[in-house]
Amino acid sequence: PVTERKMTDRNAAAGPVQKSSSSKNHADPPPAFVPEPEDGGERYSIGAFLGKGGFAVCYEGTLARNGKVFAMKVVKSQMPQKKMEEKVSATDPPGHGRSHTLTLFEFRTELQIHSKMRHPFIVQFYRAFAFEKSTYVVLELCPNGSVMDMVKKRRSLTLPEVRRFMIQLCAAVKYLHKRFVAHRDLKMGNLFLDHNMNIKVGDFGLAAMILSDKDAKRRNTLCGTPNYIAPEILDKSKGGHTQKVDIWSLGVIFFAMLTGYPPFQSKTQEEIYKKVRTLTYVWPKDSDHSNFIPEEAKDLVSACLNLVDEERPDPDDIVEHPFFNMYDGCIPRQLDPACRFNKPIWL
Ligand code: ADP
């Protein structure tokens, strides 16, 4: 099965686990209503369970006044309201503040970075506040699951769908990199889908600002998800990593959308890392695979999966690749949410 578990330096020795969490966090039912702190009397009514990560549980939250529905990410943080407000309004590059625990420190970085992002293909952050010993993060609702769910159901996607998703993803990554942000955990499970089946990049839990070479040198923590991890993150002697780690992940995502499995998939983490370091991946034989994978797609994947990070293309180079112009460059203007389950028929 395709797995997308996260690694950080601190948990590397203990094997793959997600962000620090207590399973108890997920057991507590949320309150039925949560007050909206900036609007006296206004409140969110907590609705359907949307999903859980290693760190957060997510529910629908509806504002009583206008019926607008959001995704509410709930994290047991015990973070005082004042501190939370400081975090979200802080203008310093993240990572320089103090916090009580590592978990809060990581969460603060996530909120600081995410709260400053505004882009059509990035999950919109609205606000974060503390209520009854939890932190609530109010996000744009993505009601159609993730690309991971879609690929699991469909096995693989058609070329027009892949083109559309890649173009949207490149736009989001260009925006992040222009602002010196490296997402560092791009994977199909973090590409959410809005009601129009547009990509929304989410989960900024491992994002970092990398402003200079010096910053890059300091960025040598092992982070990411084994299947999507770039070789320079594995090899600390290379002296850190830059935004280019995201381009490697784009290559992995691109391969996985076309084939249904990530290129370096293996039984153990060690085997995955060995394949990453030696750039060992195999395309399915045409006869074994229902979708034809053109040479242009293979060429683009190999450009992104370059062991030399500086040689990987930028998002602008990726969308200029001939892959996007094949067969008249058919890119669907709209996708029907039914394509989460069924292969679309292109007319
Ligand atoms: P964590 O930070 O713990 O990894 P995630 O950001 O991955 O948490 O969110 C956990 C789950 O909540 C996701 O897998 C997804 O099912 C759901 N989720 C998160 N954000 C949204 C959103 N904006 N819209 C809909 N569901 C969401």
UniProtKB/TrEMBL annotation:
Top-level taxon in the UniProt lineage: Eukaryota
Positions contributing to ATP binding: 73
Annotated region (Disordered), positions in chain: 1-40
TM annotation in the entry: none
Residue stretches making up the Protein kinase domain: 44-324
Protein name (database record): Protein kinase domain-containing protein
Lineage: Eukaryota, Fungi, Dikarya, Ascomycota, Pezizomycotina
Covered range of the whole protein: 17 to 363 of 1171
